[in-house]
Amino acid sequence: MTYCVGLCLKDGLVFLSDTRTNAGVDQIGTFRKMTLFQKSKDRFFTLMSAGNLAITQAVKEILLQGQLFNGNNLWNVENAHDAAVVVGDAIKQVYERDHESLEKAGIDFNCNLIFGGQVKGERPRLFSIYSAGNFIEATPETCYFQIGESKYGKPILDRVLSFDTPLNLATKCALISMDSTLNSNISVGLPLDLLVYEKNSLQASKLVTIDESNPYFQMIHQHWGERLRKAFNSIAEPSWSGTIKSHAISSPAKKMAALPVNLRPKKLAGKKILKPLTKTGTSGKNMVKKGDSED
């Protein structure tokens, strides 16, 4: 399994990925899921991958070799959108080559990518690219993408992150998102690759690999758990008596009546209800004695 998250913000981009891959509980590997593409202060791109490792590695190799698609590759495109098109075309090429053999082996063509960066003269951009090679782009309203095991790390992103969030604060948010995922899913694991890309820098000025000995990530892990428990304990418990109005839980809903309770009809109370006989008649249906009741 994998967890990768990419953030597109006013001041730049944040990329964070784990490195664990596994094909079973006893077959665990460590592979980097983040790849950087840089061309002499002209462009800078980052790719993070989830899915079938053989597929994602094949796509990455095509891009690194600079194969041309309609005359374009990552090194000559005029903007980041066209670069995302090249990545999609690379996925389609691998699909055309491998999908029949994968289908025969009962394996799905599974490849999900987060791709982003900047070409000189335009703003930083971020894309989520799917197995079919199509993609969507991040916007100020939807400023992050996740791939892989996303559900555990999503709540903190939704509550904290916005397009105007400063890069340092966004980095902390991404690391807490990752820590929550690591805590709940053993198929996501250390070490982590973290890149904070500053707008118009066109280089990886803040790039680090984080393992279990990293002091900042250790602090995040310890403090986030402690603060969550403290916040949880500070919230009042529900009041069933209604003596404290702000804590009352038994107040009726404004648009719904109380939940109905279906009582047993009085005429059946105390009477024994016989189960249907198992003997079948000529019609093939279970026969019931006359006078017996069915629930």
The total of beta strands comes to 12
In order across it, which strands form the biggest sheet?
10-1-2-11-12
Let me know the largest β-sheet. Answer: 5 strands, antiparallel
The CATH topology corresponds to Glutamine Phosphoribosylpyrophosphate, subunit 1, domain 1
- Reading the helices and strands in chain order gives EEEEEEHHEEEEHHEEH
Task: Determine the strand fraction and express it as a percent band.
Answer: 15-25%
Specify the helix fraction band.
25-40%
Determine the number of helices (DSSP H or I, runs of at least 4 residues): 5
Which regions have little confidence, pLDDT < 50, spanning 5+ residues? 280-295
User: Over the alpha carbons, how many angstroms does the gyration radius reach?
Assistant: 28 Å
**Mean pLDDT value:** 90
Distance between the termini: 48 Å
Q: Structural class of the helices, strands and pairings?
A: alpha+beta
Tell me the overall shape.
globular
Could you characterize what this model shows?
- The chain has 295 residues and is of the alpha+beta class.
- The protein has a single domain, classed as Glutamine Phosphoribosylpyrophosphate, subunit 1, domain 1 (4-Layer Sandwich), CATH 3.60.20.10.
- Helices cover 28% and strands 23% of the residues.
- It has 5 helices and 12 strands.
- It has helices spanning 53-65, 80-104, 154-160, 167-184, 215-234, and strands spanning 3-9, 12-17, 20-22, 28-30, 34-39, 43-51, 111-119, 125-129, 135-137, 144-148, 192-198, 206-210.
- The strands form 3 sheets. It has a 5-stranded antiparallel sheet, covered by helices on one side. A 5-stranded antiparallel sheet has the order 5-6-7-8-9, with helices on one face. Strands 3-4 form a two-stranded antiparallel sheet.
- Strand 1 and strand 2 form a beta hairpin.
- Helix 3 (154-160) packs antiparallel against helix 4 (167-184).
- The protein is globular, with a radius of gyration of 28 Å.
- The two termini are 48 Å apart.
